[in-house]
Design brief:
The protein is mainly alpha-helical. It has a single domain, classed as Recoverin, domain 1, CATH 1.10.238.10. It is 65% helix and 7% strand. Helix 2 runs antiparallel to helix 3, helix 3 runs antiparallel to helix 6 and helix 6 crosses helix 9. The longest helix has 21 residues. The protein is globular and about 45 Å long. It binds calcium ion (2 copies).
Length: 175
Amino acid sequence: MAGVEEKSRMEKRFELWDREGKGYVERSDVEAGAVRFAQALGEQGSTKEQALIDAYMGMWDSLSRAAGTDRVGKDVFLRLSETAVIGQGDGGFDRVLRPVVEALADLLDTDGDGRVGEREFVRWAGVMGVRGPDSARAFEHLDGDGDGTLSREEFTVAVRDYLFGRHDAPLFGAR
Ligand SMILES: [Ca+2]
Ligand SMILES: [Ca+2]
């Protein structure tokens, strides 16, 4: 069952893609969002950017297939988010969103150690418009085993639980 909080996070996601206010989102909007994100992290043209775009396009293709259209309006997007992802619990996340979040984790991992360190996390949060002290607190909260870094899995679980409204650590916002 979705709470108000989950719905508003998905709604915000939709509006960030539909920057021109067309009332629907299409493939090129989602691709442009991935490119903006990679650019903000200085990764334009990199293989990590391409992996992120590919992951987003895979997500988009399954969404638009489920919607039966390549122009997905807000109501349809919210309904599909509910039935195909949130309503399916962690299994829905794994099928639809996990590849995107794992590609994000790789994009954030600028020193290539396979983990999202605090500095890498705070940099991302800054891009998302979160203040340094807030993101440092969020990092501490998300680092479940307290070893000072987020493994790919810790990061993925953190994003999942954010989207599912299980915590309020700021993760997605500006892009
Ligand atoms: Ca790293
Ligand atoms: Ca950790």
